[in-house]
Amino acid sequence: MKHPGSLLLAWQVKDKHCLVIGGGDVALSRVHHLIRAQAKITVVSGPNVHPEILELEEKGELYKLLKRDYEPEDLQMYESKEQLSLESFKDIDESHYAQIDDQVKNQVFACVCCCIDDPVLSGKVYYQSKYLRLPVNIADKPPMCDFYFGSMFNQDALQIMISTNGKSPRLSKMIKDDIAKQFAGIKLNDAVDTLGDIRANLRARKLQDNSLETIEKRMEWIKKLTDFFTLRQWSR
Questions:
Q1: In degrees rounded to 5, what are phi and psi of residue 138?
Q2: End-to-end CA distance of the chain
Q3: Residues 63-111 pLDDT 10s
Q4: Architecture in CATH of 14-79+97-149
């Protein structure tokens, strides 16, 4: 039996560089997704920039806005010439951790989003990104996407994503809107915050031991507590 779905993940790009190529409606949509994820967003817009992207720059929501056409060097614009040099990754030890963290957070793009109406250039961006091993999304080209942007239902920390694997974004939106109607008037984020606080407090307590049995009992207690009340009760 085939399973055509993607692997849906909560991808952590907070404080990491992300590149958006393009300055239109699709680019704006990508920017909004990345702002919510607290990424450091660089936009290479070309000469025509969506007014809302300009507003976001003025508000300080963007890390950098370049109002020019894309150049291949943009994919490595933050990389330092002083790279970690080892004969093998097996030689990595604790003395290298800080430098590796710096490279991941401050020098390498966590993802590349290409949103331009130029199929030839889009193809180049895709293969240039793949050569550099950068995750890339080419708008409206599912075969050239390492990841998709689905329709999102958000209430602060709560996120529900609907994806059709790039086949029908419009259908994803319809399903998302239907979910929003079902939960209208329910403060789901209150439930998330309350249960999150309970779980954090429980984890912070000093347990008699940290055995697998103790951890399993703690998880079972949280499960029973969560199931004891309805969703509406937790959301009050």
A1: -100, 115
A2: 43
A3: 999 999 999 999 999 998 777 788 888 999 999 999 999 988 999 999 9
A4: 3-Layer(aba) Sandwich (3.40)
